[in-house]
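We were asked to recover a plausible sequence for a given structure. The inputs and outputs are reproduced exactly as logged, with field labels preserved.

PROBLEM: sequence recovery
POSITIONS: 208
GIVEN STRUCTURE:
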């Protein structure tokens, strides 16, 4: 199994990577600011569930398909880009929410888990990143490589969870302020739409 030194060095690298601006943490940042902390946490859970999928894909060798098959890679990224365009369309059309006394005025959290899951699973770049990143910290002399990959995936998911929850809590703190003004909400919703379009374009033009 993994040595303590390897586990700690991997956790440090994973934490840094989780804070580097990218599609996942931007997704959490924007939705937390618009809808509140609870929504950001549910989105984070969905994203982490997607990372479970990618970890298993690497451990089972499935991720290699996306690296070697252009058809599979392009098919998955097309689905992911379409989903992001759909989210952008919803953001552009979103109307300001009204605060209800005693409530945050945020949307119901149901469905946000699924958003995070779909967002992550339909990004083949994550699968290829895991395929390239996780094996670097494994060693045949340390036992089963499959078990080592699963352990590394669990560490990465833990780091991602705490990093993204922190982003959700910090970003969600301005949600009530945003909901105090229809204009502020509209500006943020439109800005979110632009970001989603940008993420879709980046994914659509990605190469294996």
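RECOVERED SEQUENCE:
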């Amino acid at each position: 199994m993994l040595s303590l030194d390897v586990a700690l060095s991997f956790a440090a690298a994973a934490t840094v990577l989780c804070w580097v601006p990218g599609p996942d943490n931007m997704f959490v940042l924007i939705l937390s600011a618009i809808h509140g902390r609870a929504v950001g946490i549910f989105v984070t859970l969905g994203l982490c569930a997607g990372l479970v999928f990618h970890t298993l894909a690497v451990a089972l060798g499935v991720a290699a398909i996306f690296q070697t098959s252009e058809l599979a890679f392009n098919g998955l990224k097309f689905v992911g880009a379409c989903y992001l365009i759909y989210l952008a369309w919803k953001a552009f059309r979103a109307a300001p929410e009204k605060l209800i006394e005693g409530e945050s005025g945020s949307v119901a959290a149901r469905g946000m888990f699924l958003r995070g899951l779909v967002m992550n699973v339909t990004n083949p770049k994550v699968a290829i990143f895991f395929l390239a990143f996780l094996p670097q910290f494994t060693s045949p002399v340390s036992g089963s490589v499959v078990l080592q990959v699963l352990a590394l995936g669990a560490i990465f998911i833990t780091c991602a969870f705490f990093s993204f929850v922190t982003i959700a809590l910090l970003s969600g703190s301005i949600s009530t302020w945003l909901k105090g003004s229809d204009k502020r909400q509209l500006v943020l919703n439109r800005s979110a739409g632009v970001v989603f379009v940008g993420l879709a374009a980046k994914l659509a033009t990605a190469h294996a």
